[in-house]
Design goal:
Radius of gyration: 15 Å
Oligomer: single chain
CATH topology: 2,3-Dihydroxybiphenyl 1,2-Dioxygenase, domain 1
Number of domains: 1
Number of strands: 8
Amino acid sequence: MNIQLLNHVAVHVADVKVSISFYRDILGLPQLPRPAFDFPGAWFRIGQTQEIHLIGNRTEAVHSHSRGTHFALQVDNIKAVETELKAKNATFTGPKQRPDGNWQIFIVDPDGHWIELCEIRNTI
């Protein structure tokens, strides 16, 4: 088996329209065309080839936390991200330096999914 890369992450959301506003307007991800599935959702591009797929009609509770289930998006400048999130009146924690010297901010989407925004300066 030769796994090449992570293609997409699927995130269950209760209200697709509210989540579109968060992922597009707060995180600044470009929205992609989506096939005509028989359930609501939206797709967003991350970087060159990776994606986040929102899947609508979530009815179960979300169990997410910075030290539990979450996903991380790498950014090039954590201070610029902090400035941009403040300008958008977004609620977030950090930036905080990790023990490996890299920096992270955590933000929570409208459904309670924790998202780490990280600047990687040091690799182990």
